[in-house]
Design goal:
By secondary structure, the protein is an alpha+beta fold. The chain has helices at residues 22-25, 30-40, 56-64, 68-73, 82-92, 106-135, 141-163, and strands at 13-19, 41-53, 98-104, 168-175. This is Putative Cyclopropane-fatty-acyl-phospholipid synthase.
């Protein structure tokens, strides 16, 4: 189901967690996405978003261009900057979702991409190639090799991006006024 078509629940949600969804939403729909979260959350609700991001200094050029990932791996994908996310959270929620915390976990994601690449390479001939040939019998050996090289490049490209902070991976925690659960553990 399209997130934009979700009905307003009879009983709003206490919490919403969104993991790597925002990259697929697109720049033009970020405010709409956060507006949907706004409608789904109860008055003292909490939401957590995990999203791959583009650094502020590179965002404008990135947003106007096309790169390898958007052309070959995730067509239509878009990596927002942290400012884009925070601005759209504020607009989409009519100012009712307050940013509690932003944590950049990109350094950890470099190791994740390295592990994914290693597993992809180890399993390509025994598992991935056969599954690919079943699902796409029209693919010849050359197309399968191109597929493998694109994904190997993608994993290396992203590993380097996260290791050098050319890419970010953030967890943003937001809460409404009255979200007292976010205050737990803070001595008052």
């Amino acid at each position: 189901m399209d997130y934009r078509a979700l009905p307003i629940p009879r009983v709003p949600f206490d919490k919403v967690v969104s993991i790597e969804m925002l990259e697929a939403v697109g720049k033009e729909y970020l405010e709409t996405y956060f507006s949907c979260i706004h409608r789904l959350l109860k008055k003292d609700g909490i939401a957590v978003f995990q999203c791959i991001t583009m650094p502020e200094g590179r965002y404008e050029a990135y947003a106007k261009g096309e790169d390898f990932i958007r052309k070959y791996i995730f067509p239509g994908g878009h990596l927002p900057s942290i400012t884009q996310l925070v601005d759209n959270i504020t607009k989409g929620s009519e100012g009712t979702l307050v940013v509690e915390r932003i944590e950049n976990i990109g350094g950890h994601y470099a190791k994740t991409l390295r592990s994914w690449k290693e597993k992809f390479m180890v399993n390509f001939e025994s598992r991935i190639r056969p599954a690919l040939m079943i699902e796409h019998p029209e693919m010849g050996d050359r197309e399968v090799e191109v597929f493998a090289k694109k994904w190997e490049y993608y994993f290396c490209y992203c590993e380097a991006g996260f290791a050098t902070k050319t890419l970010g991976d953030v967890i943003i925690t937001v809460g409404r006024e009255g979200a007292m659960e976010l205050m737990e553990g803070i001595p008052l």
